[in-house]
Amino acid sequence: MITKEYAIYKGDTLLCIGTAEECAEHLNVKPQTILFYQYAGYQKRAKNTANRRIAIPLGEDAE
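Predicted structure:
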């Protein structure tokens, strides 16, 4: 099984890179929260907020 990795940004600052579980542990949130950060609805809702966190999937199977 290939585990998807994510790059987590807050504004333009890179916070961490890793699996959802690793990033969640680093940021003290749940892994589901990391997955939520990548959803288009969340990104649209937080579009004008400079301090929003976003998750960008990395790797070949990133969509």
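Summary: Residues 20-27 form the longest helix (8 residues).
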